[in-house]
Amino acid sequence: MSRLSADIREMLAEQWEYRELLWQISRRDVLLRYKQSLMGFGWAIFMPLASTIIFSVVLTRVARIDVSLPYPLFAYSGLAAWNFSASALRFSVTSLTVNTNLVTKVYLPREVFPFSAVMVALIDFAVSSLVLVVMMVYYGVWPTWTVVWLPAVVAVHVVFTLGLALPLAMGNLYFRDVKYLFEVAIQLWMFSTSVLYPIENIGGRAGAILRWNPMTPIIEAYRDVILFGRTPETVPFAAVALGALVLLAVSWVVFHRAEFTFAENV
Amino acid sequence: MARARIVVDGVWKKFRRGERHNSLRDLVPSLARRMVRTAWGGDLQQQEFWALKDVSFEVQPGEAIGIIGPNGAGKSTSLKLLSRILRPTKGRCDIRGRLGALIELSAGFHPDLTGRENVFLQGAIMGMRRTEVARKLDAIVEFSGIGPFLDTQVKRYSSGMQARLGFSVAAHLEPDAFLVDEVLSVGDMSFQSRCIERMQEQIRAGVSLVFVSHNLQAVASLCPRTLVFAGGGIAFAGPTAEALDAYLRVSQNAERWLEGAQPSFVIREATLTSADADLHALRPHAECLLTVVLECLRTEPCFNLSIQVERTIDLLYCYGSTTDELGCGRLSSRAGDLVHASFRLKAHFARGHYRMNLNARDPEAARFLMYTENIAAFAISETATYDGVVDIEPVVTVRIQTSAPGQARQDRSQPSGQ
């Protein structure tokens, strides 16, 4: 128990000592992400927009699903939020292994690499959200007072993503298989989440399992507070919020304890 | 008593040789093996070795300590432990205060960012605040000499420029303890001497320095005390001049000179004396006497002895001669004989540390019968400022003849103080 509290004190002291490092590393990654690309931040908008157009055609003309909203709005809100998690985690997975030089040669709290991957994705998310605003104006969907919930939803989403980013980065450092497994898992996970279609439509045993998917309450909370003008569904959202906090705390402590072996194992 | 700034106390570090399981395929068998064994950190398992064995030392505020030793002796591992990149398997490493580690100067540099962007990034990596970097930016740029290239991408820099910029950022960190690992070799001569000056300034200001280098000259000029690492342990700790001798002892392999043959002689006694008494503070030109007693192990019908003097710091060959050339003729001895030899000599050397080697050779076959390095050592301490190896005892007069007509001025002569 005393070891745990010593570790937590050390973790927080380090984050304080290196408080500007996260900002600097994130800034570097943002600068680098779109350096030497003509579209720059345009890519942050283009990617979910392209998917929205594709899925709008497929799922409204071919499969026909009812979401009680203009479908592109439904799909884009889901995709923008989903893409935040997916790209944050995708960059987290390799964040330690591409920074081998820093991991093996310099001391700094190694959390900054996955954390900065999440920060960069968060900036992309903010940029791509502008398109959602434009789409809402186009479809005449106006937010109500429930939009004050938005910061809470984003916070839960970020905490949950951070909690996954740390073990993924660490896992890939030890076993490079993680990178490949991740790509498969993230695809599967997207289609198990209410990104493109509401999963409550899925019945049977598969549906029962999918109710436990923690990403669904997060994505639905976004739609609830922005598009539907209602508060997030209390029980699932509270459960996910609590779970995200516990996940982050556990994975951070584990990460912190393991980080002293990173230089030898990278 | 002042508390040590850097404490290394009984540190052991274990590494694994060969490839680690980096994919899941290798993990399962390795886990299975581990289940069977009782895993405890103290025992060496297959493929493991101790990179550091029970290393302890302390560095006080304002103290500079050098670390020298052959490759793979554990020098860099110790620095990585001190800088918290690695954790010791056993023992304790502590640094009180802010640490500046100049281990890999441009590790944090990203080739696609400009020099300016990299200065801020590197500063943050070293734990500096943004405002602190901004305040010191001019000094950093000035020191590095990057000037007009500050807003150029670092990938266009030469490796020397990168290293200079990296060092400049680190040099302005104002740490309490500095770890420097073989980083001066990159910049040019003038930059190197600026770096050494900068470090000397910081030491005077109370910073502790741990300096790892193969540049013995730089170690000698920065560090009064030096540790010699060999095979994962500290082989010697003490004054730098003696440490250099110890380093040469561990890194030289006398056997190779004998080409596998057994030596025919063994030294029973070797003493160097001087009327100046202290061999570590001789005046230039001091008279010394080297006496040696060799025991002949194998009958040698024809041999000579040779003596060499080398400068300790860089093994510069300063003098060498043989008993042949010195007029003793060729020698012969039978097994069991004792050979007494004495060399009366004058130490016409410039200030520095020197050591002597003694060989026995067969002049006909040009092979060594005995090769012994460092049978004696001495140091010249001289306060007059001159550089080089020998003291040529110059006596100087300078005369200035004016060309202006009608002004026959007195010539000024300045005899030297010799």
Structural features, described:
- The complex is a heterodimer of chains A (266) and B (418).
- Chain A has 266 residues and is mainly α.
- Chain A contains twelve helices and no strands.
- Chain A has one domain.
- In chain A, 75% of the residues lie in helices and 0% in strands.
- In chain A, α4 crosses α10 (215-228).
- In chain A, 38% of the residues are buried.
- The mean pLDDT of chain A is 87.
- Chain B is an alpha+beta fold.
- In chain B, α3 (115-125) packs across α4.
- Chain A binds chain B through residues 17-18, 20-21, 23-25, 27-28, 31-32, 35-36, 101-102, 104-108, 174-177, 260-261, 263-265, and chain B through 15-16, 20-24, 27, 80, 83-87, 99, 101, 103-104, 107-108, 110, 112-113, 117, 120-121, 123-130.
How much strand content do the residues of chain A show?
under 5%
Class based on secondary structure composition and strand pairing of chain B: alpha+beta
Q: Which radius of gyration of chain B do the C-alpha atoms yield?
A: 28 Å
- Write down how many β-strands of chain A occur, each being a DSSP E stretch of 2 or more residues: 0
| Major sheet summary line of chain A | none
Largest sheet of chain B, order of strands side by side? Answer: 5-6-7-3-8-9
| Count of β-strands of chain B | 17
- Report the C-alpha radius of gyration of chain A, rounded: 19 Å
Query: Which percent bin holds the helix content of chain A?
Result: over 70%
- How many helix segments of chain A? 12
For the largest beta-sheet of chain B, the strand count, sense and barrel status come to:
6 strands, mixed
Shape, per Cα inertia axes of chain B: globular
